[in-house]
């Protein structure tokens, strides 16, 4: 699970790093699982908290303002997108495309544009599937095999980790 908190520079701009740290500790203490990562940013006030709830469950995302009190219960699970079918429905021979680096995942060349691929599309080797931005550099994610897009695991604009599954392809002849 991931919770992100950010607010435009207003009343929260006066919050000190120590206050931000204290609020984050309160939030982390109430998480319903194992804490995986906490990221604090003082400029613009932002808190990124990631925790595990179950080993096979996808991580729902909830957005809270930085000045909001820590939640007393977990955020409601985000509805599962049709692009991510059940894990147990994976066909044999599945090729998993993973993130080659840590960065921000984008499924389209620009905001509002059509995604590079959608579930059900047939792709050829070298077809661009997505982009991962790291340090202002756009890194193309391409298919290595001819296949049908079976699942898209990452959400547009999501920060992805190295080797995180992004897209599943089922090879086709």
Automatic annotation (TrEMBL):
Q: Which domain of life is it from?
A: Bacteria
Q: Which SUPFAM superfamilies match?
A: Single hybrid motif
UniProt xrefs under CDD domains: biotinyl_domain (cd06850)
The UniProt function text for this chain reads:
This protein is a component of the acetyl coenzyme A carboxylase complex; first, biotin carboxylase catalyzes the carboxylation of the carrier protein and then the transcarboxylase transfers the carboxyl group to form malonyl-CoA.
Keywords, A to Z, come to:
Biotin, Fatty acid biosynthesis, Fatty acid metabolism, Lipid biosynthesis, Lipid metabolism
- Designated name of the protein: Biotin carboxyl carrier protein of acetyl-CoA carboxylase
Q: Which organism is it from?
A: Streptomyces kurssanovii
The UniProt entry, under InterPro entries, shows:
AcCoA_biotinCC, Biotin_BS, Biotin_Carboxyl_Carrier/Decarb, Biotin_lipoyl, Single_hybrid_motif
User: Taxonomically, what lineage is the organism?
Assistant: Bacteria, Bacillati, Actinomycetota, Actinomycetes, Kitasatosporales
